[in-house]
Amino acid sequence: MAAYYTYLITTLPTLNFASQPPFSFNLFLERCRELTPRANTEFLSKLSLSAQPLPQDVSSGLLKKWYAFDLTLRNELVKIRAARRKTDPKKYLRPDGFGDPAAYQMAMSAQRSTSLLESERILDRYRWAFLEELNTGHYFDFEVLIIYALKLLLLEKWLRIQGADKSRVMEGLFKEG
Question: Phi and psi for 141 in degrees, rounded to 5?
Fold first, then answer.
């Protein structure tokens, strides 16, 4: 049976990709600690935007879709970059993505940008739109909190980018993912 978090979810401010986060991810976790089971808060605290493999014990179908989507997007970027360098992408590709023709289009659009920063923004807007799509049909369940957490992590990423030496941050992002 699904657990519902009506009070918590209705008190969370709406997130918009073009704005700054209303509070930190850590404050979000504190709010969750007060109103959700400990296991749920621990689960949320382990969420990340980095390209790490999905833990085997994850049962959330929504989170599996998110990781498969992100993996597909990253694999499309690998293919495009490998083609430009005339190298075989197979040793860099990761398994378990899913076929999404739009992922190729977004990766290509990001790759065509003359700015690394704008390229990353294009990719993150696409990620944001996918999270919005995943949110359909979820109202007050735990999946809403997962989506909110991932969106908050995206906003925090851009807050760090805006407040830092942009060229150094972007170099670090490309080394991570």
Answer: -100, 180
Q: What is the pLDDT of residues 35-63, one digit of tens each?
A: 999 999 999 999 988 866 666 666 678 88
Predicted pLDDT of residue 100:
72
Cα–Cα dist 148/12, whole Å: 9
Asked if 107 and 93 touch (Cβ cutoff 8 Å), the reply is: no
Fill in the DSSP letter of residue 13: P
Helix (H) or strand (E) holding 150: helix 142-162
Is the distance from CB of 48 to CB of 157 less than 8 angstroms?
no
Does the pLDDT at position 1 exceed 50? no
DSSP secondary structure letters along 13-59: PPP-TTS--SS-HHHHHHHHHHHS-HHHHHHHHT--SS-PPPPTT--
Question: Under a CB-based contact definition with an 8 Å cutoff, are residues 120 and 170 in contact?
Answer: yes
pTM for the full model? 0.84
Per-residue H/E/C for 62-129: HHHHHHHHHHHHHHHHHHHHHHHHCCCHHHCCCCCCCCCHHHHHHHHHHHHCCCHHHHHHHHHHHHHH
- CA-based angle 46:47:52, to the nearest 5? 95
- CA distance linking residue 122 with residue 119, whole number of Å: 5
